[in-house]
Amino acid sequence: MKKIIHKSETRGIANHGWLKSYHTFSFASYQNLERMNFGMLRVLNDDVVQPKMGFGTHPHKNMEIISIPISGALSHKDNMDNKRSIDIGEVQVMSAGTGLTHSEFNDSKTNEVNFLQLWILPEIENVTPYYNQKMFDKAGRKNQFQVLVSPKDKLVKGSLPINQQGYISMIDLEKGFETEYNLYDGAYFFLIEGAVSVANEILEKRDAIGIYEVEKVSIKAHKNSKLLIIDVPMN
């Protein structure tokens, strides 16, 4: 078993006033040669957007982009005629492929938006761009792994497809609950809320651990917790 531990306070921080972004891996002005990626997971940004602010129209190409709201709602608009709001409990996926443009905006006049955005390197480049989003029932992740995203050629029923052999799952753990996670390849565990032990390493809010070269790991909740698992090829 190999482990990489990333404590919350070691993340890069960019504060633009309208946006505060915590970067797990090198991104924009935060560059750290020791924090370039975890396997095919290239970006994990924890973004807080102020009311009536957002990201103007910008391009993406050859990247699998997954957005997960933690609080508030994020408005999305793209050049594929998608104009949607992404709410808590929803997950959005975009296969940028040959290229797309989109914008993201916080329409609220009073409330911040906090969302996670993941970039996963694609299995095949220059595919036709794809967009989808889905609301997931929180009852489906109470003390069990709810698969949110999976490979388009091995799609787990009820999940959203991406162009990579990657699986993204979430679990809401009750204090004292113990379970095991079976790895597909390398799994990156990001703790959204609470306190847990993963492979005997204690994680607090927004801490993370990447684990690979092992078949399964133990998980125990020390508080009520919300855990995100990003399982991706390591090479």
- The total domain count is 1
Proportion in helices: under 10%
Weakly predicted, low-confidence segments: none
- Give the structural class: mainly beta
Overall pLDDT, averaged?
97
CATH topology: Jelly Rolls
| Overall CATH architecture | Sandwich
CATH superfamily, called what? Jelly Rolls
Q: Note the beta-strand portion.
A: over 45%
Largest sheet: 7 strands, mixed
| Physical arrangement of strands within the biggest beta sheet | 1-20-17-22-15-13-14
Order of helices and strands: EEEEEEEEEEEEEEEEEEEEEE
Distance between the termini: 16 Å
Helices, by number, come to 0
Shape, please?
A: globular
CA-based gyration radius: 17 Å
CATH class: Mainly Beta
Total E-strand runs: 22
List descriptors.
Jelly Rolls; mainly beta; 22 strands; 0% helix; single chain; 235 residues
